[in-house]
Amino acid sequence: YKVERWDTQIQDFLESAPGLGMIVTVKTPSAEVLLSKLYGPQGTFSFTSYLSGGHFICLQSNSTRLVSLPGSKLRIHLDIRVGEHFLDESVVQAKDKVNELNIRLEHLIEQIHHVSKQQNYEREREEKFRKTSEATNSNIVWWAIVQTLILISIGIWQTKSLRDFFISKKLV
Predict the structure, then answer these.
(1) What is the distance between the alpha carbons of residues 133 and 125, in angstroms, rounded to a whole number?
(2) How far is CA 68 from CA 3, 36, 149, in A?
(3) What is the model's pTM?
(4) Residue 40 near residue 108 (C-beta atoms within 8 A)
(5) Exposed, middle or buried, 31 (CB in 10 Å: 0-12/13-18/19+)?
(6) Where are the beta strands (DSSP E) in 45-117?
(7) Which regions of the chain are under pLDDT 70?
(8) Which family does it belong to (predicted)?
(9) Which of 46, 75, 137, 150 could form a disulfide with 4 if both were Cys (CB 3.0 to 4.6 A apart)?
(10) What pLDDT, on the 0 to 100 scale, is given for residue 159?
């Protein structure tokens, strides 16, 4: 935007209005204030809205001298751009490339961290599985030894019992 003040002596608008400032207020359709700031006689302001609908832009002079002077007028040139607009396309393209590279680099770094965490998780699982396998193998060996001892002791007991039986019946 740009503000021009009416000069009564030369009967024309002056290019710049020294000492003149503009209070810019932007409201959403639900009357929520998005922007309220004091700017100079010319400038650029931008805002991002997350609601659809008609937004209210109010440009208000901060000068009280204009009200007291008869015939005082202001001309406001307002250029409204909807969407994302930049002034210099080469700068924008360079920024876009840098931003794109930054985003890709951050994405790659996130992937590296994810792969590293996944590898650590797999190492921990492998170590836990190996310990469980070793404990199971150890238990199996001991169980086999216990079964063998039980079978041998039962065999010895049966042999002794049969021998005693045959001796008591006088078969041997």
Answers:
(1) 12
(2) 18, 25, 116
(3) 0.43
(4) no
(5) exposed
(6) 56-61, 74-77
(7) 16-19, 64-72, 83-93
(8) Belongs to the EMP24/GP25L family.
(9) 75
(10) 95
DSSP-derived 3-state class of residue 75: strand
3-state secondary structure of 1: coil
The reported pLDDT for the residue numbered 91 is 64
Tokens 């409204």, residue located = 80
Per-residue pLDDT at 87: 52
Residue by residue, DSSP assigns 32-64 as -EEEEEEE-SB-------SS-S--EEEEEE--S
- How many angstroms separate the CA atoms of 38 and 6, rounded? 21
Q: What is the DSSP string of 78-131?
A: -----S---S-HHHHHHHHHHHHHHHHHHHHHHHHHHHHHHHHHHHHHHHHHHH
